[in-house]
Known about the structure:
Elements: H1 4-22, H2 26-29, H3 46-53, E1 61-62, H4 74-83, H5 96-106, E2 113-116, H6 119-130, E3 136-140, H7 145-153, E4 157-161, H8 170-175, E5 181-187, H9 199-208, E6 214-218, H10 232-236, E7 241-246, E8 259-262, H11 265-272, H12 282-292, H13 295-318, E9 323-324, E10 330-334, H14 338-347, E11 350-351, E12 353-354, E13 363-367, H15 371-385
Parallel strand pairs: 1-11, 3-4, 3-5, 5-6, 6-7
Antiparallel strand pairs: 2-8, 7-8, 9-10, 10-13, 12-13
Helix pairs in contact: 4-12, 5-12, 6-7
Amino acid sequence: MPSAIxxxxxxxxxxxxxxxxxxxxxWDLANPQLRHLPVYEPGKPIEETAHQLEVDPDQVxxxxxxxxxxxxxxxxxxxxxxxxxxxxxxxxxxxxYLREAIATKLGVEPENIILGNGSNEVIxxxxxxxxxxxxxxxxxxxxxxxxxxxxxxxxxxxxxTGAPDFVPNLNExxxxxxxxxxxxxxxxxxNPTGILVAKDKIDNFIASVPANIVIVVDEAYFELLxxxxxxxxxxxxxxxxxxxxxxxxxxxxxxLRVGYGVAxxxxxxxxxxxxxxxxxNGVAQTGALAALRDDEHQRRTKELIDAGRAYLEEQFTEMKxxxxxxAANFVMVNVHDGAxxxxxxxxxxxxxxxxxxxxxxxxxxxxxxxxxxxxxxxAALKKVLS
Length: 386
């Protein structure tokens, strides 16, 4: 005769089986656009690579995520350490001091600024505010993949136009506008190609876009440019245009996830309605405020990036590898088989970014590191390509 425990177990199994037969599969309950939505894959973490290779994390060189090789501003580190004393308090929900500081530096009003948990969150605000199922979102081929992912998340269609020689064809982008177009994304410089659209071309493009469409200019790498286009003048002219900036790159605060959007006051007022309370944590706000004021750290970062990018491009030229001249802190280079080279470089304790997800299977993107890291990367690349 079965024991009492086994009878309970049998009863439980039958009960669960009956419940499972009556349950609707979870994907039948979920929003349909999620089923085939790819998940964003960031650069491979140092810790994971070190664990797989059974080496110390200090031996791994990560040049995959366009991070600042100098790290955060020392002033930001000191400010964040002090801010931890108040970690029990909720942050400033409106980011008053940080927004005021950004506005002063840019020559706009605090009402022109919205803070995000990274500039990616501001992209999500835009979708919440302006995109409905069945609408169109426009961008060019090989643009930052998050534009497409956010559009799909909201059930919108992404229209990607051509980019011959990786330069966005803005005339084709204009021709792709439909009555359902709500947002147009232009990253300048673009990630992952590093291409910077010329001032006159982007000005002519903006002048030709209907006023009822919101243009989003993603300037994550703005501080690294020598002669950047002035997109903020469109904000001052109350054009339906949003400029995205971040503290992840030149300021070296990628782990804190703090970015911002700059737009006309009315547009920002709409976006504020979509923002969750306390979306940017207090330590991040304090660190960003200190980093914003550290001009010396920004200058040193730009000098390091300029020298490192030039070195990488010189080496690629000597190695007879095709690359795209970059205006950002990375270089995209054709290594013939990006996935294979990525794996081989991992074995050499070098992390780069394969670009198969951008329909660029022959290419990898290599972030600029310290000169020592750059040289290690080139030595490893020569080894695996030989």
